[in-house]
Specification:
Elements lengths: L1 H18 L6 E6 L2 E7 L2 H4 L6 H13 L8 E6 L3 H9 L4 E6 L25 E3 L3 H15 L5
Parallel strand pairs: 3-4, 4-5
Antiparallel strand pairs: 1-2, 1-3
Helix pairs in contact: 1-5
Amino acid sequence: MVDLAMMRRALEAAREAAGRGEVPVGAVVARGEELLSVASNEREAAADPTAHAELLALRRAAAALGTWRLSGCTLYATLEPCPMCAGAAHAARISRLVYAAPDPKAGSAGTLYDLPSDTRLNHTFPTTAGLLEAEAAELLRAFFRDRRPKSR
């Protein structure tokens, strides 16, 4: 199944991010079975608040295709996109979003907001949530657990 393979690749990118001290979020943009881009968070390394995995994956896919219009493409993310990333997916005209774990603090694809299905916008796209959710959630939990001060 293509969705499963792409999400596994996004999880691999998230694990790589954790190893660099970045919040472990990974993203992939694919057109069918064709992998166009892979990215993970780079906010710490780039000192850039916009260097989210989804945004970077969308930029790289657009560069690979030579167009900002990513219609026919799917964005896979290990964490539900925030408002900025959901907005970028909308602006890129992606055809579909698949994410693993919901984000109760910033989720904008169904949890706090639902930008992908907001008919007030000029483009909507279907969302599939929960693919490999347990793995993505555990990766995030472990990352933050390891960074919390240990109680004495």
